[in-house]
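Quick one - inputs below.
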Amino acid sequence: MPPDARPKLAVYKFSSCDGCQLGLLNLEDELLALVGEVEVAYFLEARSQILRGPYDVALVEGSITTAEDVERIQAVRQDSKLLVTIGACATSGGIQALRNWQDVKEFARAVYATPDYIHTLDQSTPISSHVPVDFEVPGCPINKMQLLEVITQLLVGRVPHVPMHTVCVECKRRGTVCVMVARGVPCLGPLTQTGCGAICPAYNRGCYGCFGPLPAANADSLCGQLLKDGMQRSDLVRLLRGFTGYADVFRSASDKWEKAA
Amino acid sequence: MPPPQPLLTEEGSGKRSIAMANGKTNGEKTVKIDYLTRVEGEGGVYVRSEGGELREVKINVFEPPRFFEAFLRGRYFQEVPDITARICGICPVAYQMSSVHALEAALKVTPPPEIRALRRLLYCAEWIESHALHIYMLNAPDFLGYESVIPLAADHPREVERALRLKKIGNRLLAILGGRSVHPVSVCVGGFYKTPRRKDLEVLIPDLRWALEASKETLAFVLGLSYPDYAPDYEFVSVSHPSEYPMNERRIVSSKGVDVEPEEFEHVCLEEHIAHSTALHSSRADSGSSYFVGPLARINLNLEKLMPQALAAARSCGVSWPCRNPYMGIIARAIELIHACEEALALIEDYREPAASRVEFKIHAGEGCAATEAPRGLLYHRYRINDQGLVEFARIVPPTAQNYHRMEDDLKAILPGVLDQSEAQIAQVCEKLIRTYDPCISCSTHFVKLHLDRR
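Output:
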C-alpha cells in the first residue's frame, strides 16, 4: 500500500465525561467523509488501532488531575504539531475544578474509606496551565459543528475561528425574551461565550455559563445587578462556580463575592 | 496505581499495546492490556498465570477521580441534575433522571402523567442513540473481526449508514426535548423547564417509523453473528414496574428472588473500594457474589413488558429467554432498540401538552433515593437535603461499577480455557468479553462513602 498522505488526527482523554470526544462520533452526517480526509491515528474510545505519532492535530479532552497526567500531557504536546483543547474540562478545569476551593484531603476523608488507594492532585487544571495550546474549543459539551469547523480550518491551513460574542447577543438573534429582564431569572448570558445556541434562555432558564466567560466580560456589572435584584451572595458564588467556574473571569468574581460575604 | 503509558505499535500493524512478561523459569505469564479501547473512559486488564493456571485477573480503572459526591454537597438541589449529567457524556439523561427521581422522593413531589410520559420519551431517545452507538460502533467490530467501525464501514456500508442514522434520530429527539443531545438542559426537579409543543415532536414520526424498521434490521444483523458458547449462572438485577418496561421506576428485582423498594438497594448490594481500581465494585450484600445489570438483565426480568413488536421479535428471534450468554447482550440491545423506537412513537402519538411544565412544591429537608435504567444498566442515586434545599449527602452507584465484579468473574471462568493462546489472543478474549457489558468507565469512577458493615 502507498504511504498514507492523510493528516493524522489523535484524540486524547484526561479527566472528563467523554461527552466532547463523543461530539466526533455524533457527526453522523460528516463522520464518514471526515475519516476519509484524516487518518484517525489515536482514538481509544472509537478504535483499537494505534498509529505512531507525530500527529498533525491532537484533540485533548479533560483536565489535569493526577501526577501521571502532568507527565502524559507533555508527551502529548511533543507528539502533536497542533494541540486543540475540546471542552470546558480541558479549557478551564471542568466541574471537577470545584475541588480547587476545597481541601482535597478532606474530600477524600469525607467520601471514601481507603484514601490511600487514591492518587490525585489538589487542583484540577486546564491543559494550558501545563503546555502551550494552539486553539481552545469551548463548551460543556462542545458544539460538534464548531469542532468540525475547527478541524476543517486547521486542515486547510487556516487559523480557526469560533464566534466571540455573548450568549446575550445570541438570544437577541433568536428572538428569545430575556429571562432576566422579563422574569428576574439570574442568567450568566451577558458574560458567557456563545456556541451553545443560547439554549437555556430558550428553555425558560438562565444561562449557567457552560461555554465559559469571554475574556473581556464585565463580571462586576452583572454581579452588581444580580445582587441589586435580590440574589443572595452565596447563590451568586454558586452560580459562578459551575462547569467553567475556574476560568479567570468567573473565578475572580466568585472569589471576590465570597470574601465580601 | 500509575496509569501505564500506551506502548505504540508499528504503523499499520493494526494491533495494540500488549505488554508481556513471558518465558520466566516458573512458567509465569502475564498479559497486560494497558488501555481498553472502544469503551467509554479508560481502564485496563491484568491477567497473571503460573504453570498454566490462572492466578489473578484484575480490571484496572485508572480514570482519575472526579469526586462528584463530594462537591455535590452544598449545591442547591435544582443544580444537581445539571451536575450529575456531567458524570457521563454518553448517558447524561440517566444521570439527570436518577437524581431528579431521588430528589423528588426527598421532597415528596409527584409530577403528573404527562410529565412522566415525556421523561420516558427522553429515556427512549437516550437508549436509541446509546444502543446504536454500542451495537454498531463499539461492539460489532469484535464479532466481525475489525479493529473499529472505520474499516467495518468500508465493507459494510449499509450497516454503518443505518447505525449513523439511528443514532442521529435518537440525538435529534434528545435535542428537541432537551435543547442538545449531550448534557440536555430541560430537565428539572418537578418536571421540565420547558415542554415541547406537539408539532415539535410530530415532525419526528416519519424518522421514528424508519428507525423502528431499522431496529428490526439491526436485530437481524446481530442474529447473524456467531456467539461463543458461554452461559454462567448469573444473578440478573434490574428495575421493575408492574406494567411498563423498566426505565424510570421503581422496584429493584433480581433473578434470584430480590424484590425490594429502592430504599433497600444499599442493603441488597454493597460497594467496595478495591485497591487496583479507582472505581468501586459492587457485590450482593448477603453472599458477596457478583451480579449483572444491563439490557440482558432487563429483558430476562421484564420480557413480557416489552412493547408488542419488540416482544414479538424477542420471541421469534431464536434466543430462549432467560438468556445467560453475556455476548448476546448485543441481541438484547437490538431488541431494546426496537422497544425504544416503538415506545417513542406511541408516546408521541399520545402526547398531550402539559398545562404546566413543572409542578410547584415547598422546599423542606428530606432524604430520597431512586434507581433508573441507564442504557448500560441500573443506576442508583440517594440524596439528603437540608431545609434550604442544599445537598448534605449524595451517593451514586453507576451500572458499570456494579458489573466490574461480574466481568472479573467471567474472565476467571473463560481465561483458563485460552491460557495456551498467544498474548494477543488472550487480550482479545478479555476485551471482547468486557465490551459486551458496554462499560462506561468515566461513570464508574467516583467515590462514595464505603459501608463495610455487611448485613
